[in-house]
Amino acid sequence: MVFDVSVALNWILxxxxxxxxxxxxxxxxxxxxxxxFSEVALKRGESPxxxxxxxxxxxxxxxxxxxxxxxxxxxxxxxxFDFDTWSAIAGSTIWMKFILDFALSRQxxxxxxxxxxxQEKPAGDAxx
Length: 128
Fold this sequence. Notes:
Keywords: Membrane, Transmembrane, Transmembrane helix. By secondary structure, the chain is mainly alpha-helical.
């Protein structure tokens, strides 16, 4: 095996799976067991009005994502997955977790349309 850029990137991806799994499973633990909803469906750093309502969905997203990545790590270490298989599973899982977290945060923070107030001055001759 010749050490080049692709080998280095593959090792970086493999080593990155460990902290990803840790943080996702820790977040699921905090939501399910410790009942800490501070990281549920955040939008611009703000929690939704009722984070407990969205907590089961956030916990499921994190638990499933962390479980799949842990399964991939186990498959790599036991040599059951070839490179194409584990990189496809890991990459798809990471992207789907990001997309589902984004969708959940947008669902938890509904878009509120503000009514425009009446203008006090007409927009007539503004230059005079």
